[in-house]
Amino acid sequence: MPLESRHLLGLEGVPKKDIELILETAVGFREIIDRPIKKVPTLQGKTVVNLFFESSTRTRISFELAEKRLSADVLNFTASTSSLTKGETLKDTVRNIEAMKIDMVVMRHTAAGSPHYLTQLIDSYVINAGDGSHEHPTQALLDMYTIKEQMGKLDRLNVCIIGDISHSRVAMSNIFGLLTVGANVAVCGPATMIPRDLKKLGVTVFHNLDDAIQFSDVLNILRIQLERGAASNFPSLREYSRLYGISKEKLLRNKKDVLIMHPGPINRGVELASDIADGSSSVILQQVTNGVAVRMAVLYLIGTRN
Amino acid sequence: MKVLLQNAQIIDPQVKLNRTADILLEDGIITKIDESISIKADHVLDLKDKIISPGFADVHVHLREPGREDEETIETGSSAAAAGGFTGICCMPNTEPAIDSAEVVTFIKEKAKGLLVDVYPIGAVTKKREGKELAFLGEMAEAGVVGFSDDGVAVSTSHLLKYAFEYSSMFNLPIVEHCEDSSLTVDGVMNEGFNSTKFGLPPHPSLAEDLIALRDIAVLDYSGGRLHIAHISTKGAVEILRQAKKRGLKVTGEAAPHHFTLTDDAVQTYDTNTKVNPPLRSQEDVDAISEGLKDGTIDCIACDHAPHSIEEKEWEYIYSPFGMIGLETSVGLTLTKLYHTKILSLEDIVMKMSINPREIFNLAKAKIEVGENANLTILDANQNWTVDRFNLKSKSINTPFHGWELKGRAIGVINNKKLIINKQELNI
Ligand SMILES: [Zn+2]
Ligand SMILES: [Zn+2]
Predict the structure, then answer these.
(1) What is the mean pLDDT of residues B417-426?
(2) How many angstroms separate the CA atoms of B26 and A244, rounded?
(3) How does strand A104-109 pair with strand A125-131?
(4) Which of A84, A196, A200 is the best residue to mutate to test the B interface, defined by the most B CB atoms within 10 Å of its own CB?
(5) What is the pTM assigned to this prediction?
(6) Active site residue: B22, B58, B210, B304, which one?
(7) I need a surface site. Which of A80, A282, B9, B188 has the fewest CB within 10 A?
(8) What is the C-alpha radius of gyration for chain B, rounded to an integer number of angstroms?
(9) Bridge partners of A148?
(10) B181 is catalytic
(11) A interface test, pick of B199, B272, B320 with most A CB neighbours within 10 Å
């Protein structure tokens, strides 16, 4: 059964059966990762280019590992967006790379919609590894995989995403994906970090963390993206952490045992207290491991078509 | 030379004309209007089922010359205007150098000499459009500008705006305002709303337009002068204009065809040709603009023709410049979206595209009356056609309407003793 979507540009509009297929396929790859020899020949002879216009060591390494474990040939292309000002367009860059006969492109870019634009320029399959504040589908898929692994289901589970929703591609992909598979989704954060009309997507909006904790089975805590100007959305980090930082005391006060997730890297003591980040409810490191398996599944399903 | 225009529906609300008749032109002057004129003429055009209107004028056009002649020149922009059915255009001052002195005004007028389309420069409000000190408004008024604007941005401070109103009122010229509170739109590339949330693009709230419209009207009320609000795109700004007119203030406004045709849904494909400033808005805003045009709140339709090179529009959405071309789709979109949907009558459209803009900016009269210069637009309101961006007179092709089926277009223009009909040009 192949994927309905040709590329993986985001989770908006991706049918439930595609998401389920990716998550099921990832189970098999997750086992391979635990074997002494962690490599399969599935993508032998295929060339994958990791095209990173915005630095993200974690995501790039995870993709690269997934590609190598599938035996693909891997090319890494890292360009800062400042090269754009030198007059090299995305169009020139990718057309040059595709002329070298490649099969798949994994792209990270600061501009929302760039992977969509990319699909108009080249014939290769495109996987979005994060575009601006838009989507980061494989992150959401690995989050969903981890939730399912820990809780046994996704359907009708209460998941709350906490923090800077307005600058977060992780939040958007999670919202689209989780709603599609039948979870109840909420967000929690200061009003200045909740984008306009978000409720229209069908999510609940909390501004009070206690309410959010009481609602939730899972807390997916986002990184405060200081580098993206988030600091102007609230008065100070201290105040943010007082209102929205997750601590043991806040969890206890709501008598709540919830699954703690975070896409990393953590600002310790800001969005998450250390004892929670490293505590027994935290699955932050499992997310990282699962990320490789989920990306292998995506690369496999897209890369082995016809 | 004699030209006989036969059997057209002649519409000129200025002289309460709306009937089928013939018009005789002699050396570019209207010499006879009658049921049926039989005379031996040098050119006879049978215009059965066509419409003759006073020449259309678009008061918001970017010509890019001087500075970016690769994108548009005064000559190519004028050809695009003529092809789109216009006999007059006002060109905005954000050129390089900016139109902020008599020299640049004169340069443009020289370049436009002898063209069918009359080109009317609008001068900058502030030197280099920097928003620091008033430009040479008096000197530019003498050189022939028809208004002042820092288009691209709003007049930077209330203080300068007050001065601009006071100073420009000495020449009875309007201040044309690009309403945008830039503190609210930093990095914003599309309308703030559900779609900007979904598409992950930095938002540009409608509040930014409403706030400057409110500020400008407050300052106008205090200082006197004339205000013309450019490219109205929000429901809020329509209502602000409506109330200001009720209070009797000297304020007028324009709307662009893309703002009554497209919503921000069009951004879904990340086609950079949908990136305009002000941005495409919500359905509610689109409806409010149609309503404002219908009830007379919005005085004219102007396309904000903003040519950009292919190279510049091939950037990622957030990096590409704002603007789409519009001169050659304006009449077609207006007829399709407002006339064939019964929002505006043909008389209304003639008011919005010829009579009102000419009056607000004191442009050459276009009146269908014996003794007047022939300054005319010829329309086929029912012709179906397909927009082909590779078949335009403009030097740039940045339009999101490529491939659109439209109903109605301009097929000819007459002005300055020149005639273009069905792309054929004649000196008359
Ligand atoms: Zn403007
Ligand atoms: Zn403009």
Answers:
(1) 96
(2) 80
(3) parallel
(4) A196
(5) 0.93
(6) B304
(7) A80
(8) 21
(9) none
(10) no
(11) B199
